[in-house]
Design a protein that fits this description.
The chain has about 425 residues and is an alpha+beta fold. It contains 6 helices and 19 strands. The strands form 4 sheets. It has a 7-stranded antiparallel sheet with strand order 18-17-16-3-2-1-19. The chain is elongated.
């Protein structure tokens, strides 16, 4: 019975020892995998490039300039040429000048207001006739009637015209005539205008009320473009030259207003389109579509040219004077060291970003390495525990083996 127990004990110890050895092998394999990971992180560290800070020298150049009358010219490029015996360089240079320029502007929610306005028209002398017997006048076949202030429609139109043409208030009412013109508008004129036209001394001026006329853009009062105003005409002509394909060529339907010292222009079509675009009819000046307007002003413009030139060099090879192909004037060159601060700052910003990325990668690699080392230390400790356990098992197995051998010896000696 004792021998059987010893044998069972020995088999149990053998199984435990086998498990310990197997676990030890697994730990060694895990440590080998960690070693490979550690090698990969080290190689990753070696592959990193340390960012290099930019140098101001890389963004510093020599700039040559000279004074040409009222302009300061700056040379941007000098290319040596050898195919012309009289000139040795192809020079690109520039200066800035104020150029009167037409500019297009999109005005958000312009708050265009349409109203009525008195307008003055001109009727040619040949279109005015007088019947002496009936003492009646006709314009383009329409017979004129004496103005009757008791007729409300006539009175309202005439009063509106007098707001813009106050000189009509001084006329004798019997000398004011009214008729319907070819456009269907109620028009007014005076006896004096008619007599001058019939006599052939002047065309006749007539007056009518026009509706749908732009009166305000925001808080700015709008008026018709006046081509006799030299400032308005200069601005309008420049705008037309700058935008020849825009709906702006007919000066008859152009309106203008002034805002913060700048004179703007817009076509009747664009003004009307904005005025009727409000989504809420009860609020006609709110949320209108953008208004295409124009203005003209002096704009600082870069004027650049490329010319052949003869450049005189000093003993060190540095340019000291220049003479262009289309002039006999020789200009002394000034030399200045210029650093492109914007480009240098951009490069420095990129360097700072690259350095942060680099430091982040280093920190990530260090964290990964630390984690690998921690796992390896844990595995190493467990391996030592298994080694100690294996030694204990081996010792116990040897003791059990001796017990088994002693039992066998005592049993066989019994039968001797």
């Amino acid at each position: 019975m004792g021998m059987a127990a010893s044998q069972a004990r020995y088999l149990g110890l053998t199984a435990r020892k086998t498990n310990v050895e197997y676990e030890g092998q697994q730990i060694n394999q895990a440590r080998t995998a960690l070693a490979n990971q550690s090698a990969n992180t080290f190689n990753e560290l070696l592959a990193l490039e340390v960012p290099t800070a930019p140098s101001t020298q890389d963004y510093t150049t020599l700039q040559y300039s000279y004074k040409d009358g009222t302009y300061g010219e700056t040379i941007t490029e000098m290319t040596e040429i050898t195919d012309d015996p009289n000139y040795n360089y192809l020079i690109t240079h520039y200066h800035y000048s104020d150029i009167y320029t037409g500019i297009q502007n999109k005005l958000s929610n312009p708050q265009v207001v349409l109203g009525t306005s008195a307008i003055q028209n001109t009727v040619g002398q040949a279109d005015v006739t007088h019947d002496e017997e009936q003492d009646t006048y006709t314009i383009n076949g329409s017979v004129l009637q004496n103005y009757d202030p008791l007729i409300e429609d006539q009175r309202n139109n005439f009063d509106r015209i007098c707001q813009d043409y106050s000189n009509l208030k001084n006329e004798d009412l019997e000398d004011i005539f009214v008729y319907t013109d070819e456009n269907g508008n109620m028009s007014f004129t005076t006896r004096t205008e008619l007599e001058n036209a019939v006599a052939g001394t002047a065309d006749a001026n007539t007056y009518s009320v026009q509706s749908g006329v732009p009166t305000y853009v925001g808080n700015c009062e709008v008026s018709a473009y006046d081509p006799t105003d030299p400032d308005q005409k200069a601005a309008y002509d420049e705008i037309c030259d700058e935008f020849p394909n825009e709906n702006f060529s007919s000066s008859e339907n152009i309106y203008t207003w002034e805002y913060q010292g700048r004179r703007y222009f817009a076509s009747l079509e664009d003004l009307t389109a904005s005025a009727i675009s409000a989504p809420d009819p009860s609020k006609p000046t709110e949320n209108q579509n953008k208004l295409t307007s124009y203005y003209a002003e002096a704009v600082e413009t870069k004027i650049e040219r490329t010319q052949r030139a003869f450049v005189d060099l000093d003993e060190s090879g540095r340019p000291q004077s220049i003479r262009y192909e289309d002039s006999t004037a020789t200009f002394a060159l000034s030399t200045e060291t210029k650093t492109d601060e914007n480009a240098y700052q951009d490069a420095m910003n990129q360097y700072n970003y690259d350095m942060q990325v680099y430091e982040k990668k280093i920190a990530d690699i260090n964290a990964k390495t630390e984690k690998i080392q921690e796992e390896d230390r844990t595995l190493e400790l467990r391996l030592r525990q298994l080694d100690t356990e294996q030694e204990a098992l081996q010792t116990e197995m040897e003791a059990v083996k001796k017990v088994i051998e002693k039992n066998i010896e005592s049993t066989f000696k019994t039968f001797e």
